[in-house]
Design a protein that fits this description.
Elements (H helix, E strand, L loop, with lengths): L3 H15 L6 H5 L1 H5 L3 H9 L2 H6 L16 H25 L3 H4 L3 H11 L2 H12 L14 H12 L17 H7 L1 H17 L3 H38 L4
Helix pairs in contact: 4-6, 6-13, 8-12, 9-12, 10-11
Length: 244
């Protein structure tokens, strides 16, 4: 029977094995990250605008009881810095992300795009990387049989002649038919490729992106938490105050 420690080690090993870029696209390249690009341009106009800082005191919302916590100016500074950090993480993500994420944001989109647009040479290249990477397949989809690949290749680009000087016979090539008949094989190659690229490429840069973005999102969350505490205090205070 597995102990608690053994189960925790198994969960950690599973997390490390599957840790990859595709699981963090939204926090690193979502709408907040993209919006943050505007901060260096217009952020200073907001940060040093006294009228906006005064309006962020939320006196009506807190019933004028807010005598603690962040001021409007401090809240704006945190929002500004938070967006800057998220923006930096987004720039680093776009610079260092795996090539497959330049084609699509997730595995499903990548597979559909590959089936629709990739040429036979692209699949030959992907197959070569899987078979000659010096490691076993990372997913069940990468464990396809070479005989199946050879049959696909023969149908897609023609039969191979015994005379190596002649090569393959283009008159027997049926790329569209081969793609339809062996679509499952091609999807498996694409899934294996996507997993390999997103979990075994530049993971140290992914950690850096998440660390920078994490600081940014914490800074963005602090003003919201501060306002929540103030509003709750304004609601609860009248209930516990002794009657006059």
């Amino acid at each position: 029977m597995l102990t608690f420690w053994d189960r925790m080690v198994m969960k950690w090993n599973t997390f490390v094995y599957n840790f990859g870029w595709a699981n963090y696209v939204d926090p690193l390249d979502g709408w907040i990250a993209r919006l943050s690009f505007a901060v260096p341009i217009i952020g200073y106009l907001i940060l040093f605008n006294d009228n906006i800082a005064q309006n962020l005191s939320f006196r009506e919302l807190t019933s004028g009881r807010s005598t603690f916590g962040l001021s409007g100016g401090a809240r704006l500074k945190l929002l500004y810095l938070g967006l800057v950090f998220v923006g930096l993480a987004n720039i680093l993500y776009r610079w260092q992300r795996p090539y497959v994420l330049r084609h699509a944001r997730d595995q499903v989109s990548y597979v559909e795009m590959g089936i629709r647009t990739f040429s036979i040479m692209a699949f030959i290249d992907l197959h070569g990387k899987i078979r000659h990477s010096g490691s076993d397949a990372y997913t069940p989809h990468g464990k396809y049989y070479n005989a199946e690949w050879d049959a696909f290749l023969e149908l897609a680009i023609g039969k191979e002649s015994n005379d190596k000087r002649i090569g393959r016979d283009p008159t027997t090539a049926h790329w569209v038919e081969a793609k339809a008949k062996y679509e499952g094989l091609l999807r498996g190659i694409l899934i294996e490729t996507f997993f390999r690229e997103t979990t075994r490429t530049r993971r140290d840069w992914l950690v850096a992106c998440l660390a920078i973005a994490g600081v940014g999102y914490v800074l963005l969350a602090v003003p919201s938490l501060d306002l929540f505490i103030k509003v709750m205090a304004a609601i609860i205070a009248p209930l516990i105050e002794p009657p006059v």
